[in-house]
TrEMBL record:
Taxonomic source organism: Polyplosphaeria fusca
Protein name: Apple domain-containing protein
Secretion signal, residue range per the UniProt entry: 1-23
Subcellular localization: Membrane
Source taxon at top rank: Eukaryota
Record keyword Signal present: yes
Stretches for region Disordered: 346-371, 420-463
Lipid bilayer topology: Single-pass membrane protein
């Protein structure tokens, strides 16, 4: 990489950043971290998947490229890409970000000995402990079966030691931005870091749509994002002779039984006396607080009633197609729409609108008094004017403010039984890799009961 000094005004995230012209001296032996008032270079940074960086602002570290440079808006995004980088036989060990938005990924040969002053160019080194190989031994015998510890839920999996999963079972997941094969040759598709096969599986079961298997790379030759989620599985194959990575796979083969029937009674009273109205074959576009796993609609409503986060309704997905966490707790009610695989329930007294109407707004009887209407007109008009002005101010402030945060890390995504089809509309910056829609899993019904466990035998999922 050529050392180019950037001076003058640099446009970054919609704001002007003035870059000074004075150089910064490199510290002597025993390098100390250099920080300055330049907001383009943060004092330190931890990525969303747990990789940690030490930053050296206005200091370049040329050479040792892992790939060709590419454009990202901020230094933080460059470090995020590093945490997801998948190389041929090693991951990312550092980055250089220049204020014209060029990002360089550094390989394992990078060292602090080659730092040199360069205004407007910033280096970040991955903390050494983050890229140390983990225990590479397979945790149990090949093809052995186990139960994942998930607080009472029955999730069985089969271990495949030294094996990779063949076939196109990659997907876009709601927990992180999706980068497809056509974005920089697919080098940033993975996200999660795990310290064991079971840790990797825990990442799997919290994702949407339904994750069915994982590939785990303990020696980190895949990179820091060493936990690869799969939306299906078929063949488990040993890596090729030129593949230096150690891989272990696990396939989820048993899940607890989910009740697919809807109650005949349209009313339900929870254990703490909260009353719900049940609507079969309906879903709501309200705002989700979180999602949890439940075996039936009654235990899903109980979860809402026991929540301290203002839950007013739930969507229950009996197919698990959108994910293992199939009970969506909502803090707003909104427009209802038909969905045969879903059941919607709201606390009695909350308002849900049918398609074409607004939600959360109970109707108000009209007044026949002309004098009251004459008074209400200016009052309502004034309130609307104030609301519009306040919204305009908030919008302007948000537009003006800079942000280095990545988008797309929703904690509770909207429920959709056609999740894969929706992911085809990828964000413009991201690759076009689309999620594969899974076939609905067959489930035998179980009796409705309070709580999340029925004591029924786990069901075997189709391969």
């Amino acid at each position: 990489m050529m050392a180019i000094i950037v001076r003058g005004v640099v446009v970054l995230a919609g704001a002007a950043v003035v870059v000074g012209s004075s150089a910064v001296d490199i510290p002597s032996a025993g390098l100390e971290v250099r920080q300055d008032a330049n907001s383009a270079c943060p004092p330190s940074y931890s990525t969303r998947n747990g990789m940690n960086f030490t930053t050296y602002c206005n200091q370049n570290n040329p050479f040792n490229d892992a790939m060709e440079p590419f454009l990202v808006g901020t230094m933080q995004e460059c470090m995020d890409r590093c945490s997801r980088y998948w190389g041929a036989d090693e991951g990312c060990f550092g980055i250089v970000w220049r204020e014209d938005q060029n990002c360089w990924i550094r390989n394992s040969s990078v060292t602090l000995d080659t730092l040199e002053p360069d205004q407007g160019i910033h280096f970040a080194m991955v903390e050494a402990k983050d890229m140390e190989p983990l225990d590479t031994d397979c945790p149990a015998a090949d093809l052995s079966t186990h139960t994942l510890d998930t607080s009472g839920d029955d999730i069985g999996y089969t271990l495949h030691c030294g094996k990779d999963i063949s076939g196109d079972f990659d997907s876009c997941w709601d927990g992180f931005p999706c980068f497809g094969l056509d974005y920089l040759d697919g080098k940033f598709r993975s996200f999660y870091h795990a310290t064991s096969v079971e840790d990797c599986l825990h990442n799997c079961i919290k994702e949407h749509p339904l994750c069915r298997a994982v590939v785990y790379n303990p020696d980190l030759k895949m990179g820091f994002a060493n936990c690869w989620l799969k939306d299906g599985f078929k063949d488990f194959l040993s890596p090729g002779p030129n593949d230096k990575r150690i891989l272990h796979s696990a396939a989820i083969t048993n899940l607890d039984r989910i009740d697919t029937t809807c109650p005949t009674d349209t009313k339900y009273t929870s254990q703490n006396k909260a009353q719900f109205d049940i609507q079969c074959g309906q879903t709501s576009s309200g705002t989700n607080l979180t999602s949890v796993h439940r075996q039936n609609i009654t235990s899903c409503m109980d979860a809402c009633a026991n929540s301290d986060r203002g839950c007013v309704g739930v969507i229950f997905d009996s197919t698990l197609q959108d994910g293992f966490r199939n009970c969506y707790l909502q803090n707003t009610t909104n427009v209802l729409s038909k969905e045969p695989s879903a059941t919607y329930a709201a606390l009695s007294g909350t308002s849900s609108a049918s398609p074409g109407q607004g939600g959360n707004n109970p109707s108000t009887p009209s007044s026949s008094s002309s004098s009251k209407a004459w008074i209400a007109g200016p009052v309502v008009g004034g309130i609307l004017a104030i609301a519009i002005l306040a919204a305009a101010i908030i919008w302007w402030r948000r537009r003006k403010a800079k942000t280095a945060a990545l988008e797309g890390y929703a904690t509770a995504p909207p429920y959709s039984p056609y999740h894969g089809a929706q992911m085809q509309a990828a964000p413009s910056e991201l690759g076009g890799d689309t999620a594969r829609e899974l076939a609905a899993t067959e489930h035998k019904p179980v009796k409705y009961a309070h709580g999340g466990s029925t004591g029924e035998a786990p069901q075997e999922l189709p391969t």
